[in-house]
Amino acid sequence: DVKVTQSSRYLVKRTGEKVFLECVQDMDHENMFWYRQDPGLGLRLIYFSYDVKMKEKGDIPEGYSVSREKKERFSLILESASTNQTSMYLCASSSNAGGVRGYTFGSGTRLTVV
Amino acid sequence: AQSVTQPDIHITVSEGASLELRCNYSYGATPYLFWYVQSPGQGLQLLLKYFSGDTLVQGIKGFEAEFKRSQSSFNLRKPSVHWSDAAEYFCAVGPAGGGNKLTFGTGTQLKVEL
What we know:
The complex is a heterodimer of chains A (114) and B (114). Chain A is an all-beta fold. Chain A has no helices and 11 strands.
């Protein structure tokens, strides 16, 4: 079964800490995405990557950075965590093969910044 | 720019009743349309997708959706709801630029009364 795996389901961090959220996919997908999900706001795109070492800003990149050194792994970095970054973070991947097939999502990481 | 509107934030139905969740989109060309479901604390799972051809598409778990170009709608339906269908449902449209990005609606929370 194909999968997108997020390393942590729940994470509690302190304000000012540097936080790494890891995402790994085993489907050889070219595209990977990081979203945050907040009640009433739906899914908001933070960053995405369409190739190794390539990245593009999404709608809300402020306070975040990303890294994609290998095709299967896409990391989201909170340089200095703040309480307003408390949220559910979802990673997704998609393939370019065969047109637009939609995303495969990970189970999410619920991050609490205290 | 493309957009998705899900006008109903919350919907409550009785178990066994029929269900229709609304989705309206704005897109400059022929869209790819998707419905996803999210159970509490989980990632998003693809229910169904529309690319072309028959405007009535069947998905998993007994769901179907109808694409109506004239109304820019892609409403999700189920003839008889089960208690396990209680979840949040997201409509999405794409692609949008590099990486075959999707644009998501803000979601509809479905509650099922027994």
